[in-house]
Amino acid sequence: MHKCLRVDELLREICQTVLHSHPDNQQTLNTGDLARLARVCRQFQDPALDTLWWAQDTIGPLFLCAPEDMRHVDCKNIVKLSRTSRPSDWERVKVYGRRIRCIGNPQFPVGSFPFRQARPMLPDAAILDAMLVHCAIEDVFPNLLAFDFMSAVGYRCVNSNFHSLKHFLTPMLRQLSFSIVRVSLEFVQYIIDSLQTRCPDLELLSISPGYRSPPASLRIPDGTLRTLRSLSLPLQDVHLSPETLAKLAASPRIRKLSCTLEDTFDAQAFARTRGTGASCMHSTPQARFSGLEHLSIRASRPDQWTDFLRALHMPNLEGLQVQFTAAHTPSAIDLASIRAACPNPASLRALSIVRVISVMDDGLPTVSPAAFAPLFAFHNLKNVHIANVGNLDMTDAFVADVAAAWPLLEELAFVLSVPGAPRLTLRALVPLARHCRNLKRLYMPFDGTVVTHEDRLLSAGHHNDDAIPNLEVHLDDDDSEAEDADAGPQYVLRELNVGSTPISSPVDVAMFIFGLFPWASIRVIPQTEQMDKSWKRAITHFKVMQGKDAPDTPLY
């Protein structure tokens, strides 16, 4: 045997390579070859088995290690008891259970972990209870680091198995996610209170409401707050208590936070808090969420989250996502609050502001381009998504300012609240092609009913302003040389979603877009049959111009 096979790190690397080397589908794990490797070579047996068992979608497959006469799998892929179990039946389960480090994936939203099987193997409540009767969970999963309860037991079994969640709170656990089901909120709070003693090093906690679960305001113990790096309470009916939110703001370890502000949330009162308790670090208005990198907020009114942001100081924030649900907004949204909360504009990379709606509402205020001026300070933004914040009064000049302010953009979406005739023209795409050379996805409806001769020249790359009268492209003088160097087609854009853009000359529109973004795919949301026919003709012509040089991506 070669001496290199005595190096554990090398063996583990070989096992990982085999696991991810499926010959037909790179998304499928090659567990068959890895299992055969474990059987034929003793030196590979332990590292191969560790790799196979390291991460499991559910705990169902582990029960197949029990004696065959004790369990069976029904037609729905549920593992059930066939007879009463004995302590000796679980010895082999313990052997393989200690190899498991991750069950489900708590870093995904609760219950959305992509199973590797079409129908995952799940445990019946009776067989799970039988294991807990005969085994301490620390003996079965002594090395468990990450646990997603919803993925582990499945939606169908979560109600009957929820009481068993407390057994999975082991000292080694670092990541935990679960969904609140139809159980008493006192029991849920008991689970959370147990974390600081049973999971002293917990770093990631994700809690969401289950189907028809009651609203809950949860408090998290100080001991857990000291160790948390990521906390996610993503949906509307689960809130943090004001005391917990105030203490969390003082924690220097927290890096990612997703939460919902209660309807009664008082941002002014929150701004006056300093953090209480001996275990909480002293906090000042200049040191709130000082280490936070990603923040996701959900609120019922825009003034709630804007006032909340003004109470924060987040010099390291990289991503901000805001959702609000108010049907009627009395005034324009105060976007300057985002700039006030982020003293270091160079840190922000992603920004999303979305009003969640069920029907279109025409009772919204008009949002002028000047309202976005405070956001232009974030010159390193790569992803921007603005949806339904109001009747956005977009002009070509505004898009030119956006392109000049955010040259590093990779994704940009402006979703209008009320469908109608947009004021943007085809020329609004030109500064995006010139400035944003890394733009990959763009959602922006415009008015494509008029294509002038100057537009055709501009799209073709003839950027001589003397030959194109009345052309206004907002470029700074200092950037003129860089823009001249970058002039020409932008080959990075892969998806151009024009929404419900009206057009009258499909061929001219297709040629204009091709001159700017020759490798893009065009997506449309037609409102009328005529619009659908026009865009189908434009896309057909666009594909013909692309020929065989374009990347192999779907275009419609």
Give a verbal description of the structure.
The protein is an alpha/beta fold and 556 residues long. It is 32% helix and 15% strand. It folds into two domains: 3-52; 54-441 and 449-461, Leucine-rich repeat, LRR (right-handed beta-alpha superhelix) (Alpha-Beta Horseshoe), CATH 3.80.10. The protein has 20 helices and 22 strands. Helix 1 packs across helix 3 (42-53), helix 15 packs parallel to helix 16 and helix 19 (506-516) crosses helix 20 (529-546). The chain is globular and about 85 Å long.
State the CATH class of the largest domain. Alpha Beta
Q: How many structural domains in the coordinates?
A: 2
State the helical fraction: 25-40%
End-to-end gap: 56 Å
How big is the Rg? 28 Å
- Return the average pLDDT rounded to an integer: 80
**Residue share in β-strands:** 5-15%
How are strands sequenced across the largest beta sheet? Answer: 1-4-6-7-8-10-12-13-14-15-17-19-20-21-22
The dominant shape is: globular
The number of distinct helices, counting runs of at least 4 residues, comes to 20
* Biggest beta-sheet profile: 15 strands, parallel
Low-confidence stretches: 108-117, 275-284, 462-486
Assign the CATH architecture of the largest domain.
Alpha-Beta Horseshoe
Protein name: F-box domain-containing protein
